[in-house]
Design a protein that fits this description.
With 159 residues, this protein is of the alpha+beta class. It has one domain: Aminopeptidase (3-Layer(aba) Sandwich). The protein is 33% helix and 33% strand. The protein is built from 5 helices and 7 strands, in the order E-H-H-H-E-E-E-H-E-H-E-E. Helix 1 crosses helix 3. The longest helix has 15 residues. The protein is globular, with a radius of gyration of 15 Å.
């Protein structure tokens, strides 16, 4: 198993994993499969160029994804976003390795806090983040329309 940081030219790998994630777990992400399918190659390339994108490779298969992004207003905070591991690769430690990659990236970039939003019903993800030291901040919200019925809460890790 290895974790690789993608370069902008690797956008097709990101696109493939992101579409798989949105199809497999549509209620775990703010964006939708339908919206993602309409993005241009340039939009996919730009996303990889602007946001630290890590993939887990297991048995020569791209099997998981996570991204690290700067907060738009708080220079001390980064975000762990787009976390997903393919169903047939779960419970092998890929999620832990992906989280570790974003934590290391955030520390290297000088962030003091790493935050994420997770759906309340996604117990395995909440437990995984908790094992890595993330704590609930008490902030809550919902996914964007049409999935406002899905509640989520914020967790953060002080770096």
């Amino acid at each position: 198993m290895q974790i690789q940081r993608l370069a902008s030219d690797d956008w097709p790998r990101f696109k493939q994993l992101r579409l798989a994630a949105l199809q497999d777990s549509p209620d775990a992400f703010g964006s939708t499969l339908a919206d993602a399918q309409t993005r241009s190659a340039d939009a996919w390339r730009q996303q990889v160029a602007e946001v630290a994108t890590f993939i887990a490779v297991h048995n020569e298969v791209d099997a998981g994804l996570v991204r690290g992004a700067a907060d738009e207003t708080d220079v001390s905070t980064a975000w762990l976003i787009s976390m997903w591991v393919a169903p047939d690769h779960r419970r092998l430690g890929l999620g832990a390795r992906l989280i570790d990659s974003v934590v290391k990236w955030a520390r290297t970039e000088g962030y003091q806090r790493l935050a994420l939003d997770v759906a309340d019903h996604n117990t395995p993800a909440v437990q995984l983040y908790s094992r890595h030291g993330f704590k609930s901040t008490g902030e809550t919200g919902t996914l964007p329309p049409p999935r406002t019925h899905i509640s989520e809460h914020r967790m953060a890790l002080i770096l």
